[in-house]
Amino acid sequence: MRIWIKNPLAILADNAGGGLVVENGEISELLPSGTQPSVPADGIYDASNHVVLPGLINTHHHFYQTLTRAHPDAINKELFPWLKALYPIWAQNLTPDNFRIATRLALTELLLSGCTTAADHHYVFPAGLENAMDIQAEEAERVGLRMTLTRGSMNLSQKDGGLPPDSIVQDEDTILSDCERVLSRYHNRSKGARLQVALSPCSPFSVTPRLMRETASLAEKHDCRLHTHLGETHDENSFCLERFRCRPVDYLEETGWLGSRTWLAHGIHFNDDEIRRLGHACVGVCHCPTSNMVLASGHCRTKDLEAAGCPVGLGVDGSASNDNSNLIEGVRHALMINRLTYDAASVSHLDALRWATKGSARCLGREDIGEITPGKMADLAFYKLDELRFSGAGDPIAAIVLCGAHRADRVMVGGEWLVEDGQPARLDAHRLRREHSAAALDFVRRL
């Protein structure tokens, strides 16, 4: 079918005041104001009450953490003490069943915020959860988002001088074998792919240099992306200097990760020379503004990274350090913290929206999403301005960010409506809320 998305209130695309045409899951035509499709449409959707954005793209998350939001043992702490408080809880209580419902809720929450593609960095594999990537693939198909299955790993536990408990790390052979399995089963490099795979050792303080090198080789073999946490806190810098005798970016280069396959989570504590080196190598950085503020980790130098040549994307980060999965709220937070980092004239709402769309697509290595332009996939987020918070707004697109949009009215992925009238089309949100609340309560009771 050819669907004409007609006469939007505003649209984040050039010369498209008359809307766009969706055909076979792709954007086939943009229409200037006052014009009609070159070929008659089979259906018309009147978007005159909607601001239309490219579907938002989340490039860093931890879905399982929806089970431990605002946990009393972890609030009001910085990263390392926060992790030490939560690692034992996750290690003892994460099961396939509660992991599945946590994943489903996170995906749905993202979708309702206008997110159409998500990468989840899952690295916790206690006994019994070896099929975590399969569960996430099933849930992404169920909810309808595109997803990068980010097969994380940890093999440096407390007994070896790392941070995580012994019970949630895996040995190197097990990790690499499962990475091969997941890549062979789910990694699809074709246009419009619903599932792709990235390999993601967790962080310098939870994996060995050998695992980093072997993972980089595996990514080269299978032509997939690489992802890890880097430069998030001063504690991480100190750990790398003490254990590896170098700073995190040096460690990245020594392990074969300083290249365009790689995108990093956070990327806060880089000096000028490191930003230059990262940009020269086209390493992507996922900016996580909400988590960075909650944990007081610091300011990501987004504009400097972009100027150096780094793709900059956006992520909500974990639901225990955010504490939600709402990417359009993250866009607003990105605008605000970056104006504190730079100034009001240097960072606009369009910068923040670009990070959440085109920049995030570049981080994931995808050229088929992230923009409203012919040939891209029809992944679109529609927002209404009918709440009190928007009354009096002069610029509709700026209003989405500045006035604090937090929920999409409609969302389309590959030409399919997945959110209609603010509700997910494929599942019952009220039932999901009850099931997830029960799972989270049981999770706590198991302590």
Automatic annotation (TrEMBL):
Q: In what residue span(s) does the Amidohydrolase-related domain sit?
A: 51-417
The answer to whether the entry has keyword Plastid is no
A Pfam family for this UniProt protein?
Answer: Amidohydro_1
Q: What keywords would UniProt list here?
A: Hydrolase, Metal-binding, Zinc
| Name assigned to this protein | 8-oxoguanine deaminase
Q: Name one GO molecular function term.
A: hydrolase activity, acting on carbon-nitrogen (but not peptide) bonds, in cyclic amidines
* Similarity comment: family membership: Belongs to the metallo-dependent hydrolases superfamily. ATZ/TRZ family.
Query: What InterPro entries does its record include?
Result: Amidohydro-rel, Metal-dep_hydrolase_composite, Metal_Hydrolase, MTA/SAH_deaminase
Matches recorded under NCBIfam families:
PRK08203.1
What the entry lists under PANTHER family is as follows: AMIDOHYDROLASE-RELATED DOMAIN-CONTAINING PROTEIN, AMINOHYDROLASE SSNA-RELATED
**Record carries keyword Hydrolase:** yes
